[in-house]
Every structure is written in C-alpha cells, then in structure tokens.
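Running this now, will post back.
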Amino acid sequence: MKHSLSGKSSDGPAIAGPLAYLVLLATSWAFLLAGAGLGMSSMSTFRFPPPTPAAVRVDAWTPGYALTILVMWWVMMIAMMLPALAGRKSGLFPAAPNPVRPVAPRPISMRFCLGYSLAWLVFSLFATMLHHGLEQNGLVHGRMMWSLSPHLSIGLLVCIGLYQLSAVKRRAARTCHRIDATRPSLRAGLADGLACTASSGPLMLLLFVGGAMNMVWIVALTVVNLLEKRLPNPRPLSFAVGIGCLSGAAWIFSGTHGAETL
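Update: finished.
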C-alpha cells in the first residue's frame, strides 16, 4: 500500500469508489430478487408470450404505491445498467503499473455512477407513468406486470425492433459506447447516463411485454445491454435484437390471427 507524505493511505479514495459500486450493484440485485418491495414472487416465466391470466388492476394508485413502483423501476435500471460501467476504460480496483501495458485501468468513479443512476431515474419516472396508464386501461396485469394485450405486445416489439435497426440507435449506441466511468464527475455521469437512455431505454420497454419483474427477461436484457457496451462492434448484436423483436411480433400476430380464424 502506498502512503503520501502526510502518512495517509493514497489507495483509500481509489478503493472507496469500486467498493461502493459493488455494494450498490449487489444491493440492487438483492432488492429485485426479494420482490422489489412489492411482496410478490413467482413472477418469472420462460413462456413467450407470457400466459394471460384474468386481468388484475390496482384500483387506487396511492402515492405510496406509485413511489414503490418508481423505486422498483429505478433499482431495476441500476441493477441492469451498472454492470456495463465496469467496462473497457476502467477496472474495478486500481492496478499496479505494467511495463508491457504502461497505462493501467483507472478505478471506477462513484460520483460518475451516481450521476449515471440519476439519469435512469428520469427514465424510471417515464416508465412509472406509462406503467400506470397501461395498467389502469387493462393492458398490463396488475400483479404479473406483463402485457395482457397482443396488440400492445406487437406494437412495442415492432417499434423497438425498428428502433434497433435505425440510424438513431446507431448514433446513440456510439455515444454510449464511449462513456468513461472513471471520470470523477457527477455532471459527466448524468450527461452520459441521459445519452445512454436514448440507446438502451427503448429496449427496456420490452419489460412491459415479458413482465416488469420477470427475472428471465431482466437477466436477458442485462446481458444484451452489457454486450452492447463491451463489444468492439455492437452493431451486429443490435441488428440481431431488432430482427428478434420483429420476429416476436410476427409470432404473436400469427398466433392471434390463427385463434381468431378458428
């Protein structure tokens, strides 16, 4: 361990950020696995589209319930997005200089992570309002939190699929791909986080198709987001996800159309 002239450890601040990052990430996933404060479990399924039980609606979205849903979305976004920050330009902990690789990875900055997380709070506010509207209109199940409407599912899959194939997605992905989580700046984290919501935010709306608390979809989208940020060229992956969304829409449409003709 290195010491400064004053006798204090110089590794303390460098280690504090990565430790806080790991604690935040672990706490977020633990909160989700425990039910995200909703007292619910068994909301996961591999079926696509998910089963359509009888509609359940929360009649009164009290301020307390709305806050719970907001916290659920925000913690979920933190859990899904933070893994990608320990990426190509940073290491979790400071590394010793390497003569073969003179520039060692710098430790991740907690101030950057905080700003990045605040950007996803903005997205979570939007998702909460959308969640309320869809549920109150009987389009999303009040308990399972997945789509009850094939038209809603098809619409979301088509829109998200086309976005994944668009030039707008490519530009947003390039911006998000260049983020540097080692910068000790709250403002930089907020700015880069808002840029990344443009890249990954639409994809997160797939949770309304598969279930906002469906751990199968949460893990799958976390992996996709991580790969989009870490791969040197994420374009083929984004293209494949877009084609997958459009194929899923076609699958639901064919099933719905077939049922109507019987």
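The chain has nine helices and two strands. More later if anyone needs it.
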